[in-house]
């Protein structure tokens, strides 16, 4: 057996078997943040998007309510939920006090509360 031939052939097989899975993973890696700064920015963007959608839904629901009393009850309910959301986020963030991932946890905390 020629060792150089087998080594070269083994190398080509290795490259073929590794290149395909890696090439399939590159787009996935690009979709997900790879640094803490990028994860914090991605979490913030997700928070802003969710907050915008919640506000649109809230305004649409408020317009559909029949009277002032119903609207006031919705407003009170929302104030209570916002206070809970913010307190929950503060608690979750406190678990990483001073850490670089605190912003990510802060922006993702509301996801766990609704």
Report on this model:
- With 114 residues, the chain is mainly α.
- The protein has two domains: 1-32; 33-112.
- Helix content is 81%, strand content 0%.
- It contains four helices and no strands.
- It has helices at residues 3-31, 36-64, 68-94, 102-108.
- Helix 3 (68-94) runs antiparallel to helix 4 (102-108).
- The longest helix is centred in the N-terminal third of the chain and has 29 residues, at 3-31.
- The protein starts with a helix and ends in a 6-residue tail after the last helix.
- Mean pLDDT is 75; it is low at 1-6 and 25-30.
Provide a short characterization of the protein structure.
The protein is an all-alpha fold and 114 residues long. Helices cover 81% and strands 0% of the residues.
Secondary-structure topology with pairs:
Layout (H helix, E strand, L loop, with lengths): L2 H29 L4 H29 L3 H27 L7 H7 L6
Helix pairs in contact: 2-4, 3-4
Strand content: under 5%
State the end-to-end distance. Answer: 66 Å
Sequence stretches where pLDDT stays below 50 over 5 or more residues? 1-6, 25-30
Number of helices: 4
Overall pLDDT:
75
Q: Tally the structural domains.
A: 2
Give the C-alpha Rg.
Answer: 25 Å
- Large-scale geometry: elongated
The secondary-structure element order is HHHH
- Helicity range of the residues? over 70%
Helical/strand content category: mainly alpha
Care to count the β-strands? 0
Task: State the major sheet.
Answer: none
């Amino acid at each position: 057996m020629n060792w150089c031939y087998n080594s070269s052939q083994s190398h080509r097989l290795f490259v073929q078997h590794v290149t395909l899975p890696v090439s399939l993973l590159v787009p996935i890696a690009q979709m997900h943040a790879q640094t803490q700064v990028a994860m914090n920015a991605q979490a913030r963007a997700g928070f802003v998007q969710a907050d915008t959608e919640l506000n649109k839904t809230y305004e649409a629901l408020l317009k559909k309510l029949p009277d002032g009393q119903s609207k006031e009850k919705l407003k009170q309910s929302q104030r209570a939920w916002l206070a809970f959301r913010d307190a929950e986020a503060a608690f979750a963030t406190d678990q990483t006090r001073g850490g670089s991932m605190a912003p990510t946890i802060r922006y993702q905390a509301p996801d766990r509360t609704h």
